Amino acid sequence: MYDDVLMPTDGSEGTMTALSHAREIAANHDATLHVVHVVDRRVYLAAGKDEQDEVLAELEEEGESAITAVLDRLDETTLDVETELREGVPHRELLEYADDHGVDLIAIGTHGRSGRDRIVNMGSVTEKVVDESERPVLVVHIENE
Length: 145
Prior knowledge:
The protein is of the alpha/beta class. The chain is built from six helices and five strands, in the order E-H-E-H-H-E-H-E-H-H-E.
């Protein structure tokens, strides 16, 4: 039923809660786990022209760290794992990735980062993924941090 499971990461502890569910489903179905982070281009484009390159580099570094944190939690697993760092509008990039890779299930937390970082995300990525996805979406409830 599930050959490919997509698990977006933003580096938050909430992501790790969603990861436990995604890992279990992928393991039970001998599926590939796809771990994706999307650098939100709207964030660095909102910076001044002279700061955009620095902001983009920082966001990419945060994205790589988010992916590495997930891989560290998967260290003992025998799952097939694919990772990708993308750039764009997060929900659109996640849905495009799912289409491009034949993803059968998206496992995503109710929310990731909180406070200022949540405002920066310009709306709920999870809500938009649920509303626009043509495939099943497992939404994992994340307790407020």
